[in-house]
Amino acid sequence: MTQTNVKNRLDSHVKGMALWKKIIIGLMAGVVVGALMGPDAEMLKPIGTLFIHAIKMLIVPLVFCSLVVGVTSMKDTSKMGRVGLKATVLYLGTTAIAIMVGMVLATIFVPGEGLNMVANEAAVVNDAPPLIQTLLNLVPKNPVGALASGNILQIIVFALGLGIALNLSGEKAEPVIKVFEGFAEGMYKLTEIVMKFAPYGVFGLMAWIAGKYGLDLLLPLAKVIAVMYLGALIQVGLVYTGMVSTFARLSPIQYLKGLVNPAVVAFTTTSSSGTLPATIKASREKHGVSTGISSFVLPMGATINMDGTAIYQGVTALFIAQAFGIELAMGDYLVIMLTATLASIGSAGVPGAGLIMLSLVLTSVGLPLEGVAIIAGIDRILDMARTTTNVCGDMMVTLLVGKSENEVNEKVYNESI
After folding, report:
1. Taking a C-beta distance cutoff of 8 angstroms, is the pair 369, 363 a contact?
2. Given this model, what pLDDT does residue 403 score?
3. How far is CA 42 from CA 1, 24, 264, in A?
4. What residues contact residue 349 under an 8 Å CB cut-off, 6+ apart?
5. CA–CA separation, 367 and 386 (whole Å)
6. CA triplet 185, 189, 194: central angle to 5 degrees?
7. b (16+ CB within 10 A) / e for 36-50
8. Pick from 83, 103, 169, 267: CA 20 to 30 A from residue 317's CA?
9. Does the residue 205 lie in any domain?
10. pLDDT-derived band of residue 127, with 50, 70 and 90 as boundaries?
11. Which of the 8 DSSP states describes residue 129?
């Protein structure tokens, strides 16, 4: 076989390779290159940054158009309310389970034992907004300003309101609805184009992370990282697959196969909102969920469903209590659970938001805020696991809601990747 033929076959194989396989190769190559280059891997960061910027470019128009199209596709307003209620109950329910998983694991493995730290000065953190302020901020004073600033909560409220108004306007609004449908299709195609560059972006991000953190950062807090990742695996591998099997009566293996692409994107970008283009695409094309359900439920999940963040808060709060030798009463555990669940509603789906919410949880039970500074050093590594869990949870709830509404194409769902 000539060299030209070998090259052509190799090129053909690479072009035919599934995107998630290319992303995994990029991820592994990035780790190896970053470890070898060390701090010099910083020069590769712009490759990942460019990919992140491209993803962020998609978020606002994609969320806005997807929600408007999702709402207008539900001509029955009672159905929209029913779908929204189902999604909200499932999202909050899985978040409560997640915080319990985190606290149970932290109690069993005691990651902060033996550190014997003493609280001196409080760490400087951004205060989480009170719940009443979060609720007031749901309604944008200026929808254009909300779109320009990327305020996802306000964009969701405005898109829902506009979608409902277009439905109620009847035939006169049909031309506008068709414009949004065309705009949404254009955004889906642009998403597909951007995602083709994901392997290169993932390579740049992982090379930078591996080069920057290395083993010097990982080893001292390896136990915390291990407990966090174990919690994420339990939530996805047991809780989510169990719900898919029990309530949707669908194969949990196919559920796991269908979320590979968005899970890898979430792991590297650490942004639930930034992963929305990938989750919407995978939900429609791999899980067979209708456009109306996926366009409505997934953006909602990227904002209020923070199961991974809940695990993180349970693990890190108990770690800090153990590190400072502070005994927690049963009432403290209940407060942590309640606060973490409610805080998830106002936790933005962007990198680092969980660290802000952690300060709220620590304050609720009187734990020292110095703990935030300790966790901040490895927050990026923890953020990878929690964001991936968040995204997997979004897709699970969307699948369950779609199945309950008979809007899952099981032929598509059962196809092998």
Report:
1. yes
2. 92
3. 41, 21, 21
4. 152, 271, 272, 273, 274, 302, 303, 306, 390
5. 22
6. 145
7. ebeeebeebbebbee
8. 267
9. yes
10. very low
11. P
Residue with tokens 């309530």, as numbered in its chain: 247
CA distance linking residue 128 with residue 153, whole number of Å: 15
- pLDDT for 332 equals 77
Separation of alpha carbons 186 and 298, rounded Å: 18
Only one residue has tokens 């760490």, namely 123
Q: Tell me, what CATH number does 355's domain have?
A: 1.10.3860.10
Q: Which residue has the tokens 């994420």?
A: 232
Q: Is 118 helix (H, G, I), strand (E, B) or coil?
A: coil
Q: Which domain holds residue 82?
A: 19-413
The tokens for 118 are: 């003493």
Rounded to whole angstroms, how far apart are CA atoms 27 and 410?
31
> Rg of the chain over CA atoms, in angstroms?
22
Is residue 95, in this structure, part of any structural domain at all?
yes
C-beta of residue 240 within 8 angstroms of C-beta of residue 393: yes
3-state secondary structure of 289: strand
66, two tokens: 């997807």
Q: Which of 405, 392, 415, 411 is nearest to 70 (CA)?
A: 405
Contact 231, 393 (CB under 8 A): no
pLDDT over threshold 60, residue 57: yes
Give a yes or no: residue 9 inside a domain: no
* Composition of the chain by helix, strand, coil, percent to 5: 80, 0, 20
Report whether pLDDT(397) > 80.
Answer: yes
Residue 7 has pLDDT above 70, yes or no: no
77-81, 95-99, 192-196: least confidently modelled range: 77-81
Q: Which of 28-42, 124-138, 247-261, 370-384 is the least confident region?
A: 124-138
Give 360-395 as a DSSP string.
HHHHHTT--THHHHHHHTTHHHHHHHHHHHHHHHHH
Which residue type sits at 371?
G
314-352 pLDDT, tens digit per residue, is 888 888 888 878 887 777 788 777 777 765 554 544 444
pLDDT tens sequence across 231-253: 999 999 999 999 999 998 999 99
Residue 276, CA distances (Å) to 21, 54, 266 in order: 20, 13, 9
Q: Is residue 1 part of a domain?
A: no
- For residue 346, the 8-state DSSP code is G
**How many domains, the chain?**
1
